[in-house]
Amino acid sequence: MKRVFLSAAMLALMPASIFASSKSQTIHISEPLMCGSTQLAPGDYKVTWDGSGPIVHVKLTSGRTSVSTDARLIAKDNQGQGGVVFGNQGSVNVLEEIDLRHSSLVLENK
To answer: Where are the domains of the chain?
Structure first.
């Protein structure tokens, strides 16, 4: 009886541990975007984040360019697709959200 309960508990916790261990992903930015005071050129960026939510620390890195900010981590099924959402502030495109495979990072632009 204990063995069945232990196995069921392990299976129930498995998806959470898989989600928690996936804390980096590569995204593609197709046009110049601002993130905080840093302009991100088009290209591939490695996105890493620390924390389990709801607020996490996010770092985007590409070559010598690196920018860090805080974001809200939202569990969301993006159909296994990644991408970015940006808005306009005047004539500048500002990075607002990073959609990952199974979650989204909503940036807290300051």
So the answer is: 23-107
Q: Which residues contact 77 (CB under 8 A, 6 or more apart)?
A: 102
Instruction: Specify whether the CB–CB gap between 62 and 86 falls below 8 A.
Output: no
Q: Mean of the pLDDT values across residues 12-29?
A: 63
How much is the pLDDT for 21?
45
> Residue 34 pairs with which residues in a beta bridge?
39, 94
CB 39 within 8 A of CB 93: no
Q: Per DSSP, what are the bridge partners of residue 93?
A: 88
- The pLDDT confidence band at residue 110, using thresholds 50, 70 and 90, is low
The model's pLDDT over 57-81, given as tens digits with 9 standing for 90+, comes to 999 999 999 999 999 999 888 877 7
CA atoms within 13 A on the CB side of 45: 32
Using alpha carbons, list the distances in angstroms from residue 18 to 70, 75, 81, 90, 108: 22, 13, 17, 40, 26
